[in-house]
Design a protein that fits this description.
The protein is of the alpha/beta class. The protein has eleven helices and 16 strands. The chain has two domains: 207 residues, Medium-chain alcohol dehydrogenases, catalytic domain (Quinone Oxidoreductase, Chain A, domain 1), CATH 3.90.180; 138 residues, Rossmann fold (3-Layer(aba) Sandwich), CATH 3.40.50.720.
Length: 353
């Protein structure tokens, strides 16, 4: 049987295609989407060719859905269950997963399957490997549109705070307050940051950053962000930096504003360019104990269950991210183009099916 999907046709080209409904393996599930959201990663993939050319690959890696088929060896899930689908769906028996890096199971970044080397979730049906390990039930009373932020925005933003090693009382700067950066602000606040700087300029993002715990807003339109940080900290800089936006040269700013012994957590997808520049002197001539950690978010059921509990018990409100809501699959292209064009009032679009 055939299904429709919204796909990357080639670099710079997208459109609707038809494909066979995917087959379900013994450990796997077939899911029908309930709510999906496009991501800046989709934009990097299609219009920058960040991971190379892809032909007729269905896009999307953020979804909440309903299970329509499970494999014979699936134990914990059944047809009809509503589930949160993480963007990263590792192979949990791999050596990489056993070594603690499930997101790289099968090779670097290979835990990221959807819309990388496997058809994504912008389809009438999609396949999820190792369903018991990769899917989490959607609790009663949680809005699917808000819960779809748990697929990628929340775990990626939270991983930025984890990579940076945010601790109680730390001074923290989050560079970039799009949806991922906003979730980094929320995570840093939950992990006990003291003074929390958020770098951005769009009014709705600024207001959301304050609501998520930012104590200071740094507007790059008002001058160099490093100079502003140094002025506000008496020349000392910050303990931790989370990079959730910018470009390859953003690391120059991050390293410069970081105290010796500090950590940078990068969760920004660098979609173009060949090199990241590290300023020699500001990095302490290689001896400043300024650590740079960059990582793909972890996936899996356990992480999804922990993150959704923050929503259940009032610790995290992801609805602040949803600025544009659409009803119906036919709006998929419109939602994706919003992520590409990034109008000033956008934080995140969602399509409810």
């Amino acid at each position: 049987m055939k299904m429709k999907g919204y796909a990357m046709l080639g670099i710079g080209k997208t459109g609707w295609i038809e494909k066979e409904i995917p087959a379900c393996g013994p450990l796997d599930a077939i899911v029908k989407p309930i709510a999906v959201s496009p991501c800046t990663s989709d934009v990097h993939t299609v219009w920058e060719g960040a991971i190379g050319d892809r032909k007729d690959m269905i896009l999307g890696h953020e979804a909440v859905g309903e299970i329509v088929e499970v494999g014979a060896l699936v134990k914990d899930l059944k047809v009809g269950d509503k589930v949160i689908v993480p963007a990263i769906t590792p192979d949990w028996g791999s050596l990489e997963a056993q070594g603690g890096y499930s997101m790289h199971s099968g090779g670097m970044l290979a835990g990221w399957k959807f819309s990388n080397f496997k058809d994504g979730v912008f389809a009438e049906y999609f396949h999820v490997n190792e369903a018991d390990a990769n899917l989490a039930r959607l609790p009663e009373g949680i809005d699917p549109a808000s819960a779809v932020m748990l697929s990628d925005m929340v775990p990626t933003g939270f991983h930025g705070a984890e990579l940076a090693g945010v601790e109680y009382g730390d001074s923290v700067c989050v560079i970039g307050i799009g949806p991922v950066g906003l979730m980094s602000v929320a995570a840093a606040s939950l992990k006990g940051a003291g003074r929390l700087f958020a770098v951005g300029s769009r009014p709705n993002c600024v207001e959301a950053a304050k609501a998520y715990g930012a104590t200071d807003i740094i507007n790059y339109k008002n001058g160099d962000i490093v100079a502003q940080i140094m002025d506000l900290t008496g020349g000392k800089g910050v303990d931790k930096v989370i990079v959730a936006g910018g470009d390859n040269d953003t690391f120059i700013q991050a390293i410069t504003m970081l105290k010796p012994g500090g950590r940078i957590g990068n969760v920004n997808y660098l979609g173009s360019g060949d090199y990241v520049r590290v300023p020699r002197i500001e990095w302490g001539c290689g001896m400043g104990h300024k650590t740079i950690a960059g990582g793909l978010m972890p996936g899996g059921r356990l992480r999804m269950e922990k993150l959704v509990s923050l929503m259940q018990y009032g610790r995290l409100d992801t609805s602040r991210l949803l600025t544009h809501r659409f009803k119906g699959f036919e709006h998929m292209e419109e939602a994706l183009m919003l992520m590409k064009d990034k109008p000033k009032d956008l934080i995140k679009p969602v399509v409810v099916l």
